[in-house]
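Why do we bother with holo predictions? Because pocket geometry can differ from the apo form. Keep that in mind while you read this record for nicotinamide-adenine-dinucleotide.
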Amino acid sequence: MAGLEGKVTVVTGAASGIGRAVAERLAVEGMHVVGVDLRAEGHVTVQADLTTREGNRQAIDAALEAHGRIDVVVPNAGVQHVSPVAEFSEDRWDQLTSLLLTSPFLLAKYAWPSLVKTGGRYVAIASIHGVVASPFKSAYIASKHGVLGLVKVLALEGAPDGVTATAVCPGYVRTPLVENQIADQAKAHGVSEDRVLEEIILAPHAVKRLVEPAEVADAVVWLLGPAGRTMTGAPLIMDQGWSAR
Ligand code: NAD
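The structure, written out:
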């Protein structure tokens, strides 16, 4: 895929955080961006609930109806739930696995005929929690590990048609998803909220800073550019040294 201008991308979770930064950056690169989210904010053109099959179908159909093709899919929408496994709500498990694992599968499935025609790229926003674990995040971590398995399968199935599939795996990124877990983390670990960022959230980073959403957007642009052709079936880890330990 040479040059991004005029190409069509579906980005989920485009109302906030990483998805918003990616959608805005890809629009600057000249792509037609179909932003999908529950909320009509940020770079959103399609309001849909991606925990449902209908919502994922609606996202892909909207892109095909508006532009007649899909070149790139960026499954990104996500939520977190922090709880010890014995108390982990089964409804929350279903909600997180639907959004974080089933939605990336459904988006790939529904967009696949178009991706095969365009020799497209599938870039999931996974997490370093697709590679390593932390306590109290069973549904999130199981789903993110699943996404890394999914992109391996998509890479093998897509190779004959020039479709690539990768997953970006950041450490902690400065977004509402992280800001919103500070209170829950404080409770689970029994420390005050002001100590959570330094002692809990950034504790696993070798480099003690959050990743910025714009840095994740830069990585996506690189993956969609000429050098990104070499990346398929493997994660792109940008974790501030977390997994080096
Ligand atoms: P965020 O909370 O800023 O944005 C997530 C977006 O997803 C929101 O706009 C929200 O409305 C949307 N969303 C939630 N439920 C939805 C649903 N059912 N249907 C449609 N949209 C829905 O979060 P973020 O930090 O930008 O996270 C984006 C992705 O990046 C997630 O998959 C997350 O796991 C991953 N990630 C985040 C971090 C981090 O530290 N922030 C690190 C690694 C990976």
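The mean pLDDT is 95.
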